[in-house]
């Protein structure tokens, strides 16, 4: 299993699934729940500057998820999304219990761990980062 092609395929699948999860959440904040309702929710959680934070969060999730799927600026994007999820863990999930059904810390912890795996191991060769990294200058 320790073959480059297997690692690259696993990283591609891992990145794509994680990216789609973030795209779905960003899409939900923008178009299903809406920024106004997301702002109200953020205000209820005590998040500073709830409207600005809702816009930044939705944009980061939507665009960052897309960048993860493409494998573009992958380690930077994964690190930024991990910080975003740490903020969500603190403001939204901490003190709510463990399980996701209770709005607990389970889900953001899994996302943070997954994002840290991408920060550590990179995007793999099956990514735009991999393609640009192999380009002859």
From TrEMBL:
Localization: Cell membrane
Keywords attached to this entry: Cell membrane, Membrane, Transmembrane, Transmembrane helix
Membrane topology per record: Multi-pass membrane protein
Keyword Transmembrane: yes
Keyword RNA-binding (UniProt): no
InterPro entries hit by this protein: DoxX, DoxX-like_oxidoreductase
Transmembrane segments: 12-31, 76-95, 107-128
Record's GO cellular component terms: plasma membrane
Principal subcellular localisation of the protein: membrane
Pfam family of the protein (one): DoxX
Family: Belongs to the DoxX family.
Protein name in UniProt: DoxX family protein
